[in-house]
Specification:
651 residues, alpha/beta, 19 helices, 23 strands, globular
């Protein structure tokens, strides 16, 4: 019997997966590589596959110094699978920062590549297909993704976990961790906020990186490289079990296969214990100081020429109990890095600059940054070009007159979700009261008072260049009463009146309360999404009744998420390992997981002896499904739940 091959250990003289990363990659820069002999490509008239032609036509401009070429001999190959098209994939800061780090670091024995949801892919039920059955490949190399040593998957939202199944199928990688063979199949690594509860994908991911992975991933690559290059005396491949045990000891890495759950009836776990004493009983998220983060953690490393962006701050100074943005420590990007980046964007005439941050107003150098952007926008305008600045989010109580002046002097500016632009909008600013009742705001730990919001609105009115306010509210939360929800309509009217101008617009964005693992609200009950959607309709109807149909149509909008997405997120955000099997059943049955109904979900859960309503309940279980990662103070959870229940019961 022949020894299984190790596909990523390239022979001397093989072409590198990253050929030094030129400043602008054109089709001529694409590295040559072996074609897979078993899959006939879909040929175009030029003889290239449609997938190859699409990749060759992608425009990519490096925004930082070129990578130092690595000797490809013996290096591992890591592929980041991104479930987005090309333009949006470049904005995926987490995987793009790690991609840049691997290729920029001589001491990391790997090259990193990217595979996307290319435009030429076609749908076959829930599966994606390449044209003509051509191998699913990366941007950087024609070699099939399935020949990678490591595959990385970034999950932004728990409601999108099913995309893992689609991507693994597309890459022809076995879905279940237990079915993969080291040396033949890649390790599959997951990360990001969508895996705050990693248990639904515990049988599908080999490793989950918790927190920031700059250090843990580099160590994982080093240990995996050693395991893959040091062969046993008999020539056998390395032991997968031994490798996973070694990886489990790296701080910040969770290896689900090394923990045994004892399931509770209907959903949840009674225990979740490590296999042996060598496996850590708990895993702590890893966060790094600003000086330890690669530049690409703060600035997008590649642009397609249409947009680029930066993260001036990471984390938030505030620790609201319902939000996980305050869990990582607050860090700020070095100002010289951001200023030089803007200069580079001006040199390349990139027309859209995105400032993505939980709270941009917390950046201590915001005035200098906005001044540099204003100068770029003015020079572009003088040359007949328009530069647009998109600001992700601000806190109303951190807005100042100087800040508003600096923002409005940018020329074209708006909110990150600019698809919500209304006619005649001069500028969009976002304010997140979260609840209309001040005492409910305080109970959930938010320090943004009504008085501070009123002050912010006065500043917007005095500035004269803000005519659209987007208000974020949470509905369906414990402690909430009917009057609190209807008061959102009155709140929106008050905001419009305070802004004063006749063309002022108010957008109400309603979000269902979703307890987030790792926060003091993680055990709280959820309201059925169908009920929450009805709440949203009541708020919309009240706004319409208060202002009249014509005024509502011209100046108001109420937005809320579809219930199908919320039903799925509810079970995926706090379910156990059986939820992954439910997703797999729905996926294989070709149920549209972007539009799954509650009835479909309830039926699929029942086949695995799971109860939908159990996932919505207050979770007073001693052990939560994400027990290995849970470090929230139990007393704080109980105190919050008691205070909210007391308020809700008071009529």
């Amino acid at each position: 019997m022949s020894t299984p091959r190790l596909p990523a250990l390239r022979p001397p003289g093989a072409s590198p997966a990253i050929p030094g990363a030129p400043a602008c990659r054109t089709p001529a820069n694409l590295p040559d590589g072996p074609k897979h002999p078993d899959v006939p490509p879909a040929l175009t008239r030029s003889g290239a596959s449609a997938l190859d032609e699409e990749i060759a036509g992608l425009r990519e401009i490096r925004l930082s110094a070129p990578y130092t070429p690595k000797d490809p001999r013996g290096l591992l190959r890591m592929v980041f699978l991104l479930p987005f098209g090309h333009a949006f994939s470049l904005m995926c800061n987490g995987p793009m920062a790690l991609y840049d780090l691997i290729n920029r670091s001589p001491h990391i024995p790997a090259v990193a590549e990217r595979a996307l949801q290319y435009a030429c892919l076609t749908r076959d039920g829930n599966r994606l297909r390449t044209p003509g059955g051509a191998p699913y490949r990366t941007i950087e190399s024609p070699r099939p993704v399935r020949e990678a040593d490591i595959v990385g998957l970034s999950m932004i939202n728990a409601g999108d976990l099913h995309s893992v199944l689609r991507l693994l199928d597309l890459a022809q990688i076995p879905r279940r961790s237990r079915d993969r063979i080291l040396g033949i199949h890649p390790l599959v690594i997951g990360g990001n906020q969508g895996l705050a509860d990693p248990e639904p994908l515990a049988d599908y991911l080999d490793v989950v990186a918790i927190g920031e992975a700059e250090h843990s991933l580099a160590e994982l690559i080093g240990i995996t490289h050693q395991a893959m290059t040091v062969r046993h005396p008999d020539g056998a491949p390395p032991s997968r079990a031994d490798l996973l045990s070694d990886l489990a000891r790296i701080p910040g890495l969770y290896v689900p296969a090394l923990y045994d759950p004892h399931f509770a009836p209907g959903g949840g776990v009674q225990t979740l214990r490590p296999h042996n004493a060598q496996v850590p009983a708990t895993v702590h998220a890893q966060y790094l100081g600003a000086g330890d983060l690669d530049d690409a953690h703060f600035v997008y490393p590649i642009t397609d020429g249409t947009a680029a962006g930066m993260h001036p701050v990471i984390g938030c100074r505030h620790t609201c109990s319902f939000c996980n943005l305050g869990v990582p420590p607050f860090r700020q990007a070095p100002l010289p890095l951001l200023l030089a980046y803007i200069d580079r964007l001006e040199e390349l005439q990139v027309p859209t600059v995105i400032l993505s941050a939980p709270t941009f107003t917390q950046y201590r150098h915001r005035q200098q940054l906005l001044e540099r952007l204003r100068a770029y926008a003015q020079r572009a305008a003088a040359a007949g070009r328009t530069v647009t600045t998109i600001i992700g989010s601000v806190r109303a109580d951190e807005i100042s007159a100087d800040y508003l002046d600096a923002v409005t002097e940018l020329g074209e500016f708006g909110h990150l979700f600019t698809e919500l632009h209304l006619s005649q909008a001069r500028g969009v600013i976002t304010i997140a009261p979260e609840w209309a009742a001040p005492d409910l705001v305080a109970l959930y730990g938010k320090t943004q008072t009504t008085e501070r919001i009123h002050r912010a609105l006065e500043l917007c009115r005095a500035n004269g260049n803000i005519n659209t306010v987007m208000l974020y509210f949470i509905i369906g939360a414990p402690g909430e009463r009917r009057a609190d929800r209807l008061a959102i309509a009155d709140y929106a009217l008050d905001v419009r009146q305070r802004l004063g101008a006749a063309d002022t617009n108010v957008i109400i964005k309603l979000h269902q309360f979703m307890p987030k693992p790792g926060t003091p609200t993680q055990r709280l009950a959820m309201t059925d999404p169908d009920t929450v959607h009805a709440y949203g309709n009541q708020i919309r109807d009240r706004v319409r009744a208060l202002v009249g149909e014509a005024d509502f149509a011209a100046h108001h909008r109420v937005e809320q998420f579809a219930t199908s997405r919320m039903h799925l997120e509810a079970v995926c955000s706090r379910g156990d390992r059986r939820i992954g099997h439910v997703l797999e059943d729905l996926y294989d049955a070709d149920a549209d997981l972007t539009q799954v109904t509650k009835d479909q979900l309830v039926e699929a859960l029942a086949r695995h002896s799971l109860d939908y309503d159990r996932h919505l309940r207050h979770m007073d279980d001693p052990v939560l499904p994400w027990h290995v990662l849970n470090h929230v103070n139990r007393t704080a959870e109980q105190q919050l739940a008691t205070a909210l229940a007391t308020r809700e019961s008071a009529r």
